[in-house]
Amino acid sequence: MSETNSQNIVNTAVTLIEKYAEGKRDFSRANLVDADLRGLDLKGSDFSYADLSEANLSGANLRGCDLSFANLSQANLQDADLRGTLLFSADLCQADLKGAKLEKADCDRTTHFPQDFNPVQVGLQIREK
Length: 129
Fold this sequence. Notes:
129 residues, little secondary structure, 11% helix, globular
């Protein structure tokens, strides 16, 4: 990893908010474990390979985000807007998806959902690799 990339890793909610306000949208590999991101507008951001485990994203606007390979285990996604997101190989085990808007979001067979969660029922599109 180059020195430039390692300096750009976002690891606090405050840094994320500042960078988003500056127009940055690439937060791939961000380390936001247990971050409080309630109600934030983060639409169109790249969170691929990010660690958002146990993060509070309730009511957040994540529309059109790339969450491929992201760790969202035990994340609070209640009432979050995830329409049009990419969820390929994302880990959503034990995530709280109550009221989350998931229409036209894309996932694949390697995306992990909470037990008893039906991706088709909420409008997710399962893509074959």
